[in-house]
Every structure is written in C-alpha cells, then in structure tokens.
Write a structure and sequence with these properties.
The chain folds into two domains: 66 residues, Hypothetical PUA domain-like, domain 1 (Ribosomal Protein L25, Chain P, Beta Barrel), CATH 2.40.240; 163 residues, Alpha/beta knot (3-Layer(aba) Sandwich), CATH 3.40.1280.10. Helix content is 31%, strand content 27%. Strands 8-7-6-11-9-12-10 form a seven-stranded parallel beta sheet, sandwiched between helices. Strands 1-3-4-5-2 form a five-stranded mixed beta sheet. With 243 residues, the protein is α/β, with parallel strands linked by helices. A hairpin with a 4-residue loop joins strand 3 and strand 4. The longest helix is centred in the middle third of the chain and has 21 residues. It is found in: Cytoplasm. It comes from Streptomyces odorifer. Keywords: Cytoplasm, Methyltransferase, rRNA processing, S-adenosyl-L-methionine, Transferase.
C-alpha cells in the first residue's frame, strides 16, 4: 500500500512538523504512528517522502524527510471544460477527473445548465470544487493537483479553445470518434463537456469557429458528470501518459 499524502504550504528537507487540519487528520483519523511512511506535497509537483518519527497530542506529528522529488508537469496538458451539473454531481465529476489525471478543470456556465453559480452561492460552489480536487488529489496520491479555474462564460471557453493545440467538444452527434482523432504529443488539449440538456447550436458554432471539432465517445450517451472522466481516460491512454 502506498504512503498517504498530506498537503503542506511548502516542501522542505530535514525534520518537518505537520500540524493544523492535515496533522489532525494524520493523527486522529489515519492514526499514523512512528515508523510509518508519509508523503508531504505542495500540490504543485513537489513532494517530500519520509517517515513519521514522533506524534504529539491529537494534531501534530514530526516527519523525517528522506527524499524531495520534483514531478514535472505532464505533457500534453489536459484540461476539461465542465458544464455545471445538477446537485452534487459537479463534485463527483471533479473527484473522478482528478483521480483519472486531468490537469485542469474549468467550470462552464452553459446556456442549458439548470444549475447557476451566482453571488455567494457561486463562490461556495467553486470552493467545494476546489476542496474536492485537493482531497481527491491526496487520495489518488498525486503530487500535482488539478487547477480549478473561475467560472467561465461561453466566450471565455471559446478563447481557451482557440489557444489549444487540440480542442474538442463531446457531442452525441459528432461526426468523428474521439478515439481516432489526431492528437498532439506536446502542448495542450482542451475537452468540452456539455450540460444535461446538451451543447446549444450557438455554443457549438462558437466553439467550432475557435477551432474545436465535435467528437463522440461511443454508442452510448454518458451523463455530464461522467463524460469528462471517460473522455480524459481515453486521451490519457492515447497520448501515452498512461503508457
């Protein structure tokens, strides 16, 4: 079993103190003891691999760091633009995409989204997505957690697609399968996942003008909360990142 991962502000060598919420989780929930391995990461690709040397109270432990590693950013970079799903299915989408290996997640206020992020509710929802990405990043033993961007409009998404080396919109009526698309070996890939009601013709047209083609995954229609994970898994395999 791999060592548990905890998030820290800064990764350093020597003997490190883990306290606060992460220390409390390590001591009171995970019940770590001296001699057990742990990994401390800043979530930006840097990780300290070490061993617990002592536990203090209910929320503090001391870690002797044996090695500090710098994980390079994987290439090509994969971003999923996720239309806002209903209820808590947005957090489910973020969780599974993080576990799969997506590099960035962009919330999108599509015209057919039932859920809307406005005011305090929007800030709270974005905070939940970001917290979910952090927790899923730790759970999946990642050193580099995905970035969760601010809520994007259709115009902002189109601009993002225009700057990608490969851009695609998942659409059940897409003329070509994503499994056969020509993908770059480097650079950036941006994949758009529409809402439950689908991508509108106007949005599809705007994205097409930005250089994004419409692709299908397979014969079945996936829910918006699972399509991004399935599409990302396909891209990770085809680009060799899962090789």
């Amino acid at each position: 079993m791999t060592a548990p991962v905890f998030l820290v502000d800064e990764v350093s060598a020597g003997t490190v103190v883990l306290d606060g919420p992460e220390g409390r989780h390590a001591v009171s929930v995970r019940r770590l003891n001296p001699g057990e391995p742990v990994v401390l990461t800043d979530g930006a690709g840097r990780g300290a691999f070490g061993t617990v040397v002592s536990v203090e109270g209910k929320s503090t432990l001391h870690v002797a760091v044996d090695e500090v590693r710098e994980e390079p950013a994987p290439r090509p970079r994969i971003t999923v633009v996720q239309a806002l799903p209903k209820g808590d299915r947005g957090e489910l989408a973020v969780e599974t995409m993080t576990e799969t290996g997506v590099d960035a997640i962009v919330p999108w206020a599509a015209s057919r989204c039932i859920t809307q992020w406005k005011g305090e509710r929007g800030l709270k929802s974005l905070g939940k997505w970001r917290a979910t990405a952090r927790e899923a990043g730790k759970q999946s033993r990642r050193l580099r957690f995905p970035e969760v961007a601010e809520l994007h409009s259709t115009r902002q998404v189109a601009a993002l697609l225009g700057g990608a080396d490969f851009a695609a919109v998942l659409h059940e009526e897409g003329s070509a399968p994503l499994a056969r698309a020509s993908l770059p070996e480097d650079g950036s890939i941006v994949l758009v996942v529409g809402p439950e009601g689908g991508v509108s013709p106007e949005e599809l047209g705007a994205f097409g003008e930005a250089g994004a083609g419409a692709f299908r995954l397979g014969p079945s229609v996936l829910r918006t909360s699972t399509a991004g994970t399935a599409g990302a898994a396909l891209l990770l395999g085809r680009t060799g990142r899962w090789g």
